[in-house]
Amino acid sequence: MSVGTELYRKTLLTVAGNKAVESLSLKYGKKLAGKFIAGSTLEEALEEIRTLNSKGIMATLDHLGEGITHLNEAALYRDEYVRLVEGIAHSGADSNVSLKPTQMGLALDPEAGYQNIRTVASKAKRHDLFVRIDMEDSPFTQATLDLVRRLHAEGLDNTGTVLQAYLHRTEEDTRDMIREGIRLRLVKGAYKEPATVAYQSTAEVMHQFKTMIRHHLDQGVYTAVASHDDHIINWTKQYAKDRDISPDAFEFQMLYGLRMSEQERLAQEGYRIRCYVPYGTMWYPYYTRRLAEKPANLWMVLKNMFR
């Protein structure tokens, strides 16, 4: 990522947080956001997953929503996730589950949020499904790690979480999670964070990302590398090849609507590839983070505005 691209990312995230911009986007941007969203309903998302599976691409299914203001909203999301788990199980889709802890009430009432997540994880375990507890911005990092540890302590080892390479704390967290047997998705990080908690230099973030991947592969821990960056993808492939690590020991993860032909190509090459498939109506925060990742995403949307 160049200095210009990093400035673009920070600027767009700042602008996207403006209430007037959000209001206009919600009014006019839904059709454009559809590029990154599999549909408004669970049924639409499951249909998209069936198509992905037919191409050798696995999925992780996410019901959009975060930053709720009332616990009754969390209960509604919990119930939808129970329905989501049942939908995956009954459809036979090759998919696991992703959810955000604030969506379940973590920021409002940590215990209530935990119990909502536990309900989903318990249902998923009965169907032999894995649940990824997504990582949000840095104020929730420790709380998220703690709740995943608690889930494991209660026997719900079908859960894991996400670590973000740009946080200063991540290398130590990576070692701790590996030691504790908690499965991770490894990402660069997509939130706007201050220099006090996150690296601002692209070179430092990339170094941290590679260090995380190396720790996993060297210790024989199943590794989920979530990136659209050719450099990271090719580096991971070469690192595994040089050390005679099987392609079954790791997977690549990409987002629905981005680099779909590359996802198919990786599957055809024999690599495990998983597509993050979101659905629902609360698309704005997710959509703006996708646009902020690189200028090409915004350019793609602007071109489609005139079609």
TrEMBL record:
> Cofactor note, please?
Binds 1 FAD per subunit.
Which cofactors are named for this entry? FAD
EC numbers: 1.5.5.2
Residues annotated to bind substrate? K100, R289, R290
Ordered alphabetically, the record's keywords are: FAD, Flavoprotein, Nucleotide-binding, Oxidoreductase, Proline metabolism
- Segments forming a coiled coil: none
- Which pathway is recorded for this entry? Amino-acid degradation; L-proline degradation into L-glutamate; L-glutamate from L-proline: step 1/2
Q: InterPro entries, alphabetically?
A: FAD-linked_oxidoreductase-like, PRODH_bac_arc, Proline_DH_dom, Proline_oxidase
One of its Pfam families is: Pro_dh
> Which GO biological process entries does UniProt record here?
L-proline catabolic process to L-glutamate
Q: Which GO terms describe its molecular function?
A: nucleotide binding; proline dehydrogenase activity
Is Metal-binding among the key words of this record? no
Q: Which protein is depicted?
A: proline dehydrogenase
What is the native source organism of this protein? Paenibacillus silvae
Q: What broad taxonomic lineage does this protein's source fall under? A: Bacteria, Bacillati, Bacillota, Bacilli, Bacillales
Which gene produces this protein? putA
